[in-house]
Amino acid sequence: MNVNTLPSYYRDRFHHLNQLPSVRHSEGMLKSQGGASLYYQSWCPVNVPRAVVVIIHGLGGHTGLFGNMIDYLVHQDFAVYSLDLRGHGRSSGQRGYINTWAEFRSDLEVLLSLVDTQLPDHPCFIVGHSLGAVVALEYVLCYPSAVQGVIAISPPMGKIEISRLRLALGTLFSRIYPRFSLSSGVSSAVGSRDPDVNLAYAQDTLRHKRGTARLATEFFKTVTWIKQHSANLKTPLLILHGGGDRFVLPEGSREFFEQLIFPDKKRIEYPGAYHELQNELNYQEILHDMTNWIERHLAVAPQQASANSTCEHS
Questions:
Q1: Which whole-number Å values give the CA distances from 256 to 64, 138, 157, 259, 274, in the listed order?
Q2: Exposed, middle or buried, 28 (CB in 10 Å: 0-12/13-18/19+)?
Q3: Rounded Cα gap, residues 180 and 164, in angstroms
Q4: pLDDT tens by residue, 226-238
Q5: The pTM is what?
Q6: What mean pLDDT value characterizes the chain?
Q7: Of 114, 145, 172, 276, which is the most buried if we count CB atoms within 10 A?
């Protein structure tokens, strides 16, 4: 990744991160379902990593948005892998478009396969932000023993601040013109309470605010499916949400958390915090909570990835 093309808020963090002598940085392309080319990066401590953390970004995002989190994790001797989902960042595909949700599942699966090849027998945790949290939750419902745990940041399990008109157009055009694209209409100002972060988001040419009709219908169908199958969740789960999130309202993740039967669950809500918790004013507190939760689950013997999917969702 050419960090010089990133806004200064990200650039400064990745300049520091990629020059650390104790960390090996790699990047490349992976092939996913339908021939999609996915850009990925990894940061691996020179010392034997304690575990692997896989990061999946949200709608319109990319790997470059997680410098704070990656820097924090590698200093705790965690290896970090992240990719740009198809239609995002440096990966191929129309911005904000998928044919079916199975394509996002495949994108995550190819990254986890790379992790398993390069760091076999290491405990693995998925961190999913917003849309990425839905990708992670659907994946572990399909493959219950694939990873050691999931951290869902700002998961959109309830009301989302997108106008009813845009949602209605998405439903209509998904059938007749699935690649029809609209702006989400979400302001950069709702990302973080840090004005430098919001300025960086507005200047970021890799970010987009596009969502296609097909993605909208696949997204809402998948969220509904996850809720309907929440009793089947068998993977440890940590939910982190900002109490002031104006894009993905925290009530949705609160209600979802309460309906979960699996006992190994935890939810933390940060009063006043916005949507992009990894870049919030109190991001160090949030990352501290996240790594503490991961460390508590390292005492559990690593689980082996399930060979067969239990997923009925397409």
A1: 29, 14, 7, 5, 19
A2: exposed
A3: 16
A4: 999 999 999 999 9
A5: 0.91
A6: 90
A7: 276
> 286 in helix, strand or coil?
helix
Domain locations along the chain: 3-297
**What whole-number distance in Å separates Cα of residue 284 and Cα of residue 141?**
30
Question: How far does CA 33 lie from the centroid of its chain?
Answer: 19
**CA separation, residue 254 to residues 80, 249, 250 (Å):** 28, 9, 6
DSSP annotation of 310 reads -
Rounded Cα distance, 34 and 261, in Å: 36
The residue behind tokens 């093309």 is 5
- Integer angstrom CA distances of residue 219 from 30, 58, 123, 203, 308: 23, 12, 29, 27, 24
185: left (phi over 0), alpha (psi -120 to 50) or beta: left
| CATH H-level superfamily of 3-297 | Alpha/Beta hydrolase fold, catalytic domain (3.40.50.1820)
